[in-house]
């Protein structure tokens, strides 16, 4: 439009501007409730049609912007059909329905009283974001009715009219005792309208304003509303704006659902809704509505709103209350709904029902409004409800999701953080920062605790009189003097028994034959000495070679001994381990007394007192082992060995001795044994040579390769 102050325009200050005159005439017609639509009015000024249309569009834009920043009336479409409700000017009302399109103010409506066909409009019952509801009188039937009109009146645009018609059609489809019935739809004096039942009473928002209500009464109200909403859902309609203000209570204390202004058909894509716009009432809308995802709106969206209404009736406030619409929307989208028990002492079943309704994900809510109504009915009748409460783990995860650092990790936006969540985060950050020091202290403490000597170390030896028992006893005496605490040497059945006790933690040290040193948990402390396999035959036995003992009974030691392990390896190499020989599991102390046993095998250190006594009696003699080298190749823990005449002087052995195989006796412990114990044991072991023939020295042990040494033992030998 040309600027009248521009320097290249003629001076026309004294002449009336035809555009201004037309605009003033339009405003007067609108205020008077004229019947002409905007298009008809513009057609009256054909020469100014283009300029006048631009001016009116600009005026609409200015009015919309002004209306979005300074609402002067409570947006309360819930006042549709109630009488005597005061309309307060409260500014940014969190319980007002978010209008899809801003509309002009009161001036677009008719002057009251206003006669409109069969109806006389008498007073305003309430104004909402898009509509105005009047108390009217229907002349023909002489009855009070509620009449709803578009708030922008004769200035209503095409989208507003379509939306208004959709609301009327949606409500007219529903015939339910708990839904306000629509009677008539029409157009009078340029105003679209529809009439409906006038419900004299109040809405549920008054109950909420009065504070917490009786739980049973609240459950009854919401049960009946849920039944009505299920009726709408069955006919394909979603309400999308359920809130206490849209539930009317009549004189008989019965509920009536009203205001289907935002209703949507389940299978329809509404072209009347702006993509990404949040529509509904922030305090009561479902998360998918608050995020503007209209495609995700479903029957469970109304179920969420029903749960929010039930929450508000029980507690006297909606689930989310903030200082602004935006904060409320963000909390609805991202923050778990608070528990009823945080505000009042409600029955557990009712808390479970509300909790299920207010889940963020639609699929986690009641599948239908009917299911919600059924559970509320069960609660009222004292029957078990079908909903199940959330587990403590789920509640804990919900609580953690409101800690800022965890919320950031899962992509949840927080508009507000409680003191407890901030304190928890501070503690977590402090813990993380302190974690290296804590871990170092724990590891140091654990190491110190672990590296302590046992209060009474135990050593697994062998049978009474055996070399193992002798070595264990002598080592126990030395160690006891070194560590200044009692050390016990236990009598056992041999290597296999010793291994079991060591792994079970019954002993701290054990003497094991080489073939028994196995498993990741066993570590070697020191190789002690070599053991020889003694084949002891009765003197009257004509057998000269070991290969000739087929069919004989052979004692190979107890099943828990190392002798039987070595014997089985020997007979395996000779091919005599498959039933050719009858094995008797007896120690030599017993088998020597049983004359039915002609041969005994004893794996023991050369010079054994038990073997020496048997040979000296002349009742027994030693047999040679055939081909000991090949046997040692079959079983690496065995090695060729000679039993020399000096080992048993009274036995009249050949000068070159008796060929046999031998193995090694080791001192072992657990892999996690305290280093201080291992070191103290080695120092006691090598202080003086133990009275065992051919004891392996510290230097020889240090040169040994391939041993699974305990770390402390390796350090000990490397320090040599």
UniProtKB/TrEMBL annotation:
<keyword id="KW-0547">Nucleotide-binding</keyword>
<dbReference type="InterPro" id="IPR008271">
    <property type="entry name" value="Ser/Thr_kinase_AS"/>
</dbReference>
<dbReference type="Pfam" id="PF00069">
    <property type="entry name" value="Pkinase"/>
</dbReference>
<dbReference type="InterPro" id="IPR011852">
    <property type="entry name" value="TRAP_TAXI"/>
</dbReference>
<keyword id="KW-0808">Transferase</keyword>
<dbReference type="GO" id="GO:0005524">
    <property type="term" value="F:ATP binding"/>
</dbReference>
<dbReference type="InterPro" id="IPR011009">
    <property type="entry name" value="Kinase-like_dom_sf"/>
</dbReference>
<keyword id="KW-0812">Transmembrane</keyword>
<feature type="transmembrane region" description="Helical">
    <location>
        <begin position="427"/>
        <end position="449"/>
    </location>
</feature>
<dbReference type="InterPro" id="IPR017441">
    <property type="entry name" value="Protein_kinase_ATP_BS"/>
</dbReference>
<feature type="domain" description="Protein kinase">
    <location>
        <begin position="119"/>
        <end position="380"/>
    </location>
</feature>
<keyword id="KW-0418">Kinase</keyword>
<keyword id="KW-0472">Membrane</keyword>
<dbReference type="Pfam" id="PF16868">
    <property type="entry name" value="NMT1_3"/>
</dbReference>
<keyword id="KW-0723">Serine/threonine-protein kinase</keyword>
<feature type="binding site">
    <location>
        <position position="148"/>
    </location>
    <ligand>
        <name>ATP</name>
    </ligand>
</feature>
<dbReference type="InterPro" id="IPR000719">
    <property type="entry name" value="Prot_kinase_dom"/>
</dbReference>
<keyword id="KW-1133">Transmembrane helix</keyword>
<protein>
    <recommendedName>
        <fullName>non-specific serine/threonine protein kinase</fullName>
        <ecNumber>2.7.11.1</ecNumber>
    </recommendedName>
</protein>
<keyword id="KW-0067">ATP-binding</keyword>
<dbReference type="GO" id="GO:0004674">
    <property type="term" value="F:protein serine/threonine kinase activity"/>
</dbReference>
